[in-house]
Amino acid sequence: MGGGSQQTVPGEPDSGKAKGVYTWEEVQSHCSRNDQWLVIDRKVYNITQWAKRHPGGFRVIGHYAGEDATEAFTAFHPDLKFAQKFLKPLLIGELAATEPSQDRDKNAALVQDFETLRDQVEKKGLFRARPLFFFLHLSHIILLEALPWLIVSMWGTGWILTLLCSVLLATAQSQAGWLQHDFGHLSVFKKSTWNHLVHKFVIGHLKGASANWWNHRHFQHHAKPNIFTKDPDINMLNVFVLGQTQPVEASGTKRIFLISSNIHTVQLLNTPSLPLFYFYMQIMKTMISRRDWVDLAWSLSYYFRFFSCYIPLYGVFGSLALMFFVRFLESHWFVWVTQMNHIPMDINHEKHRDWLTMQLQSTCNIEQSFFNDWFSGHLNFQIEHHLFPTMPRHNYHLVAQQVRALCEKHGIPYRVKTLWRGFADIVTSLKSSGNLWLDAYLHK
What we know:
- This protein is mainly alpha-helical.
- Helices cover 57% and strands 5% of the residues.
- It has 18 helices and seven strands.
- It is a multi-pass membrane protein.
């Protein structure tokens, strides 16, 4: 049980074992893959074995090993009482009375103010979804899926109609991506079971991807956004460099593919393209390795439906070309929208910041408008989404002013851009990263 004293903590349920009293230094020493402790509300838990069974994946919970995970635990679990049942067998003690509630010199006042804000938001009912909103959104996706088939069935498969068909299908795919995101974050139904079921339908049958694959990667991104080795969204496989830190650190190796003076141009061309082969291989690898045949069945149902509809019209090779062209269009939409909030922001190593500071330094917002809300799936409110990941997206704008006021109180920048400025900042950021790498590489 580490170096903690073996004192029984008053008030704890008697599990037959004495509970320890620990310092932050002792907790922080248990942060390896095979030895993981964390703290929630001053209680110390040994999650070493539980991490392997964690529904969100072992990595997302492992990213908080040796740390205070109170804010992350609260943010990710809509039903805290239910989640806390799984914690009871993992309890090994609590922090010593002389230890602060926050680790690593975090601002206690800021943490308390954010907790107060969350309580106020919950009392206002902003975590309650409007089912009609999501029903109408799903309906317009199904319409966008059906309309292209009807068009080419009735009027032929000429180039213009095929291009129109591709745009409509790519729009349906993008909007389905935003909708699966809602269900994946458990932000629609009160019961997680219903969220998981509809999530599998939307991401599996409407998009042909794996719910488990998405959960495993996306929750890591939310837990530690823009943090090297912890956020898979910035894992560039030693091919690209991002931010201001990585280019300088990577300049000493020739593993980086891009070495010309036009490094930023090549990065720009490759990043939005979302390498499709790698994408599909990761999906299949995740599903097969987990033996998740349910996810596989949902995913295959998309391809069965798509090819059943379009092979009679375009043939095998024509329908394959259509599918990949739709994916090409959708991947640009997806990556430009999601990365305009993150790539231009701070990308760095772990700094052990509090929840509010960590999320605000890695995210920014895009101005609100009806088009921006629809086009981005309300991820133009990326700040509010990252702070409250289980909040229904139609309520982001209702809490935005309170979040901005809290940030102003504590001197934390709250950045809002136009849509075009967000796109342009991706280019500027990649260009800056490329120039930093090239400059450091040439002068070493």
